[in-house]
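Private note to self, pasted from the team thread so I don't lose it. Backbone tokens:
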């Protein structure tokens, strides 16, 4: 399992002590990945000024305030960290969200310039996260753990091998462990850019209680050797995973509250 450090509200997974959150975005080294986490309480009215016209329209289309906040925080985190890493103004970070299938602005965000770190946005429940890496591609997923949903989704998400493992679990563990399987797979297909166009049952990942890794992918025998997977801290009541294509980087998690201005 790769080394993951949580800074600001976490710990080294390998047992080292917690360090304070950095006052600014650290440099991103050639074999590093940063994961920044924000919570809904971090969203402020002033953050709307960082949305471009297309993003403002998408924000307005969300009916629920929580959905608006998740979208806004994803934009703010992405622009703020990328601006620091690229050494440009926040408003100079131009993002394209065009869907490759229909052209509408609801696709995976990417830099218009095409020059910069790979990044991936994820949100669920109270958490919004963005991962940044110098790797060719990165995928981040987070899910709020909702135990009643696990049994109903298991057939659609788990491979036969995983389903056999899942059925042997104590019922009290199934909800939590199911979401561990789910975020690992979602992280992989987000890293490839394929998303849910790929049936998640085609992928097999390690058992929930084991270090994260891709075990197999139907029709893609070389896939396990291409991905590095990391289970992340995220936050209480959530499961999160990072998938990186390429060499295994050092991964650090950061609390973004102070970076983006703190609670409203």
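Design output:
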């Amino acid at each position: 399992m790769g080394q993951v450090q949580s800074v600001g509200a976490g710990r080294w997974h390998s047992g080292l002590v917690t360090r304070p959150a950095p006052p600014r975005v650290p440099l991103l080294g050639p074999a590093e990945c940063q994961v920044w986490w924000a919570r809904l309480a971090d969203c402020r009215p002033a953050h709307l000024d960082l949305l471009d016209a297309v993003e403002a329209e998408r924000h307005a289309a969300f009916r629920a305030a929580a959905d608006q906040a998740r979208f806004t925080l994803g934009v703010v985190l992405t622009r703020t960290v990328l601006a620091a890493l690229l050494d440009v103004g926040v408003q100079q970070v131009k993002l394209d969200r065009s869907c490759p299938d229909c052209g509408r602005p609801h696709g995976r965000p990417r830099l218009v310039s095409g020059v910069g770190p790979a990044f991936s946005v994820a949100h669920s429940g109270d958490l919004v996260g963005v991962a940044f890496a110098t790797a060719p591609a990165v995928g981040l997923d987070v899910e709020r753990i909702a135990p009643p949903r696990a049994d109903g989704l298991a057939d659609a998400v788990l491979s036969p091998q995983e389903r056999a493992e899942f059925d042997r679990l104590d019922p009290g563990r199934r909800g939590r462990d199911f979401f561990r399987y789910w975020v690992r797979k979602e992280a992989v297909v987000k890293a490839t850019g394929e998303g849910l166009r790929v049936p998640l049952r085609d992928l097999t990942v390690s058992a929930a209680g084991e270090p994260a890794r891709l075990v197999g992918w139907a029709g893609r025998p070389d896939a396990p050797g291409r991905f590095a997977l990391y289970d992340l801290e995220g936050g209480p009541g959530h499961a999160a995973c990072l998938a990186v294509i390429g060499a295994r980087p050092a991964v650090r998690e950061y609390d973004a509250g102070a970076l983006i201005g703190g609670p409203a």
